[in-house]
Write a structure and sequence with these properties.
The complex is a heterodimer of chains A (about 180) and B (about 260). Chain A has five helices and six strands; from the N terminus they run H-E-H-E-H-E-E-E-E-H-H. With about 180 residues, chain A is an alpha+beta fold. A six-stranded antiparallel beta sheet of chain A has the order 1-6-5-4-3-2, with helices on both faces. In chain A, helix 3 runs antiparallel to helix 5. About 10% of the residues of chain A have low confidence. In chain B, strand 5 and strand 6 form a beta hairpin. Chain B is an alpha+beta fold and about 260 residues long. In chain B, helix 1 packs antiparallel against helix 5 and helix 1 packs across helix 6. In chain B, the strands form three sheets. A five-stranded antiparallel beta sheet of chain B has the order 12-11-10-9-13, with no helix packed on it. The chains are: A alpha+beta (about 180), B alpha+beta (about 260). Chains A and B meet through helix 1, strand 2 and strand 3 of A and strand 8 and helix 6 of B.
């Protein structure tokens, strides 16, 4: 009897749980836009990733952006972007507010990876505040990494550069 | 005589541990090297499709696959995944339905819309925006091609670019709602294979073999024992070497 019990326990111990993915939503798009523009949220616009723009984004991300167009919101010289990039295996959704070619705020809206969620803490994302584009479309601000979340940190850094690149490439940059 | 027996016992133990640990060490070295270079070897991008591994990990088939026929194309929802003609496109939350517009296909999840071109490439993932609209219940199309969404029993109509939505009170605006149709079995087979392999790549399998986790907690414990065996082998090897050296010196002295 004891042997049977022991066998059952061992079998149960050996059984593996299926990998489970759970998305952590830190801020909805509506909340993000309210934070960016208050009560007067402008109409959404789109920017198509084609031609030279597509090439520039590919160079920056090391791969094509996983969508053909990007939605953004623009008021005077402030723009808000909702972008996605895969950290390790799953896409991280990020909201970036850009004002006069500098990042006003970057926040993780949805994080789906199993590990590396520390990148969603304001202590990390605040590092992007006031960052601009330097040489070769890299950020002009040093972003300190987080051990165990290297790929997520890189993903956020790439999206920060991409938002600045797209901001510089649209009418919002002229305050229109 | 006693020292000789002690030495031969130590040698026997050393040999036993050595044989047991050799295969383990070789495997750890090879798997460790592969894991170290998994990105450049593309192991993290290689999805596992071997049925026995998928079974071992307990990766089950999707509970159900819902298909929508759009002309000659098929849009399918399986779990939280969206497929176009059996090819994975993107993740989607609670697939609701899909329609084919003039310029794009639109697949609706409970709280988002995925716009695809007619080759199944993702144009955009758009959050379902109107404040207080509630979750999407169904998606359809008016006779003039306008995309319509039903949420909390109200009908919202989109502009041509699907950038903004407005409520319609026109009772004559009756959309053709998206309906599910059973797709061919071969399409379901392709989707099921991809669905089960999603998230399980070779890097993960190697990591689990390397750590013993692939065999569950018992595996980790066994790996601990094997690691201890390797450590003991190193120690017994050192002891044997020291004894041999000492014996050699003593024999050397005796000869002199």
């Amino acid at each position: 009897m004891t042997r049977i019990k022991l066998s059952i326990i061992l079998i149960l111990m050996v059984l593996l749980p299926a990998p489970a993915y759970s998305a952590s939503v830190y801020e909805t798009q509506a909340e993000f836009l309210s934070r960016a523009f208050g009560n007067s949220i402008p109409d959404a616009r789109v920017i198509w990733l084609s031609g030279e723009r597509k090439k520039a984004v590919r160079q920056l991300l090391d791969h094509d952006y996983p969508a053909l167009r990007v939605r953004y919101w623009c008021q005077l010289d402030r723009s808000a972007w909702v972008l996605e990039e895969i950290g390790k295996e799953l896409p991280i959704t990020v909201g970036v507010i850009v004002e006069r070619d500098y990042i006003k705020s970057l926040r993780v809206l949805t994080y789906r990876e199993n590990r590396g969620g520390e990148v969603a803490t304001p202590a990390f994302t605040d590092q992007f505040n006031d960052a601009g584009l330097g040489d070769n479309h890299a950020l002009d601000t040093r972003i300190d990494g987080i051990s165990g979340a290297t790929l997520s940190v890189k993903a956020l850094t790439r999206l920060a550069s991409m938002s600045l690149l797209l901001h510089a490439d649209n009418a919002c940059n002229n305050g229109t | 005589m006693a020292r000789k027996t002690k030495n031969s016992n130590a040698r026997r133990l050393h040999r036993l541990l050595g044989v047991g640990a050799a295969i383990f060490v070789i495997f750890m070295v090879l798997s460790g090297l592969a894991i170290n270079h998994s990105n450049s070897l593309g192991l993290d991008q290689h999805q596992v499709s071997q049925t026995f591994l998928l079974d071992w990990y307990g990766l089950e088939q999707p509970e159900n696959i819902r298909d929508i026929r759009l002309g000659k194309d098929w849009i399918s929802f399986a779990g939280s995944h969206l497929y176009f003609n059996g090819q994975h496109v993107a993740m989607v939350s609670d697939g609701v339905g899909a329609i084919a517009g003039e310029n794009m296909l639109v697949a609706a999840g409970k709280d988002e819309l995925l716009l695809l071109d007619h080759d199944g490439k993702l144009i955009e993932r758009a959050a379902w925006g109107p404040q207080g609209a509630g979750p999407i219940e169904s998606i359809g199309q008016l006779s003039d091609g306008t995309v319509a969404v039903k949420a909390m029993d109200r009908i919202w109509l989109a502009d041509q670019e699907l950038l903004s939505w407005h409520l319609t009170k026109d009772e004559l605006a009756i959309p053709n709602w998206s309906i599910t149709t059973k797709a061919p079995g071969s399409l379901h087979k392709t989707i099921t294979q991809q669905y089960r392999g999603d998230g399980l790549n070779l890097e993960r399998v190697l990591l689990d073999f390397h750590s013993g986790r692939v065999f569950g907690p018992v595996g980790v414990f066994l790996y601990d024992l094997l690691a201890l065996a390797v450590g003991l082998m190193a120690i017994s090897g050192l002891i044997l070497w020291a004894r041999g050296r000492r014996n050699g010196q003593r024999n050397g002295n005796g000869k002199r």
